[in-house]
Amino acid sequence: MNASKIESFLHHLCEVSSQQTIPRFRASIGVDNKLASGFDPVTEADKQAELAIRREIADTFPDHGILGEEFDDINPDAEFCWIIDPIDGTRSFVCGLPTWGTLIALYQNGKPLAGVMDQPFTGERYYSNGKKSYLTKGDDKRELSTSDTTDLTTAIMLTTDPRIFSQDLKDGYQAVENKCLLTRYGTDCYGYALVASGQVDLVVEAGLNNFDIAALIPIIECAGGIVTDWQGKSASGGGNIVAAANRKIHEQILQTIAEASN
Amino acid sequence: MNASKIESFLHHLCEVSSQQTIPRFRASIGVDNKLASGFDPVTEADKQAELAIRREIADTFPDHGILGEEFDDINPDAEFCWIIDPIDGTRSFVCGLPTWGTLIALYQNGKPLAGVMDQPFTGERYYSNGKKSYLTKGDDKRELSTSDTTDLTTAIMLTTDPRIFSQDLKDGYQAVENKCLLTRYGTDCYGYALVASGQVDLVVEAGLNNFDIAALIPIIECAGGIVTDWQGKSASGGGNIVAAANRKIHEQILQTIAEASN
After folding, report:
1. Angle at A16 (CA atoms; ends A13, A22), nearest 5 degrees
2. In this complex, is the C-beta atom of B152 within 8 Å of any C-beta atom belonging to chain A?
3. Chain B residues within 8 A of A195 when measuring between CB atoms
4. Which of A2, A242, B48, B196 is 20 to 30 A from B112 via CA?
5. Looking at the complex, does the CB of residue B92 fall below 8 Å from at least one CB of chain A?
6. What number is the ipTM of this complex?
7. How big is chain B by its Cα radius of gyration, in Å?
8. If you compute the radius of gyration of chain A from its CA atoms, what whole number of angstroms results?
9. What's the pTM value of the predicted model, to 2 decimals?
C-alpha cells in the first residue's frame, strides 16, 4: 500500500460514492428517524454510497477490514481496515447545505494511515495519501499546510453546533470559544478540512464516532496539524475532539479546556 | 426595465463582481477591524467588488440610484435604485466557507423588484427577474419554488448564528427554534436562497441592514414565499427578519414569536 496506490484508490472510491450521493442531494429524499429520541436523518444516499464503496474495497482488497456506519463490520481485526461515513453531516445534506462530506479512512493496525473528505457538490476533495495532504478541485491540485497562528486569541474556530456539548462539556468548550477571535457554526467535516488547508485554526467538538473523525486525522496531521481528544490522547476511536493547526495552538486549547472544567 | 433586460444585467454584474471576489477567496487577505467593539472583517474583495459593480451600473443606467455598504449613496431618491452587498457573510468568507454571497437588488420606488444572490465558488446563482425566480449552476437553469410545508413542527429553519439575538429577542427566536423539527446555523444569505429553492422552510434573523435582505426578498417572494419583519411589516429596510416558504408557515412563526415575547 504505497502512497500512489492509496491516492488513486481513494479517488476511485470518491467517484463511485458521488454517483450515489449527488443525484440525491437536493432531491426529494426520504428521511427516516434513526433515533426515536431525536432527529438523525439517514438517507438512501447514505446507504447506497456505503454499499458502493464497500463493493469496491471488497473486490480490490478482499483481505482488508471494512467498518461503516450503516452496515455490519467486516474482518475488523485485519491489518488494513477501511472506515466509511458516506455522508458526514446528514443534517446539512437534508438542508441542502454544501458542508457535508464523504469520509473514507484507511487504518493500519488500528492507526490512521490515509483518508479523504470528498465534497462532490463543490468539487473539493481533501485527502492524505499517508505522506502528504492535498486538495483537488477539478484539474487544480495543491498541497495542504496548516496555519502558523500560535496565539489562541487571534485564532478562528469552527464547530458544527454549540448544542452538541453536554452539560459537563459546556464550560470547557465555551472557554475556548470565548478566547478565540472568531467562531463559526455549521461546519461538519468541512471545518476539519479548512484546518488542514490553513484557512482556520481549530475545531472543537464532542461525542464523535470513530467514522466521523478517522479520515480527517491523517488529512490534518500530514498537513502539519494535530488531532487528539480533549485530554490529548488518541482521537482515532472518536470521542471529544480537538483538531488544531499546530502544537502551540493545541496546547492552549487543551489547557483552556482543563482550566474551565475544574 | 423588463424581466429579460433585468436578468441579463444581473448576470453581467455577477460576472464582474466574481472577478474581484474569487481570486481573493481563500487567499491570504487583509482583515480590518471595522468595528472597534467587535470583529467585523471587511476585505479588499468587498471594496473592489462593490466598485466594479457600481461602475457597471453607473455606465449603463446613469440616472439610477446606488446604495452600497462600503461607499456613499448615489442618487438615493431615484425611481430605480440598486442596493449592493458584494460579500454578505464576510465572516464565512474569511473562514473559507462557501455560504457567503454577492447580493444585488433592484428597487423601484422603494420596493424590491428584482435581485440576485451569487455564490461564485460553488457556481450557484439564485435570482429573480421581477416575475419568477431561478437558480443557475453552469449551464443548468431551473425555476425556484418554495416548499409546501405548512406545519412549523415539521419545518427546517436556517439561521446565521444564535448569538445575533439580543436579550429582548432571544425568547422569540428560541420559541421558533424549539418548535421546528431541525435548525442549522452558519448560513448567511445562503439560507434564504435555500428557502427560495424549497430545500428548507424558514429563516429567522435579527438586526439586518437593508443591503443584507434587499436582494433576497424578490428571490423568495417570486418563488412563492414571504419575507417580513417580526411584526409582519415590510422587510425592505432591514431589521428583524422572518423569511418563510408560504403564508401558513409565516403566520405560525409570527404567532410563536409574539406569544414568546409577551
Report:
1. 120
2. no
3. none
4. B48
5. yes
6. 0.93
7. 17
8. 17
9. 0.94
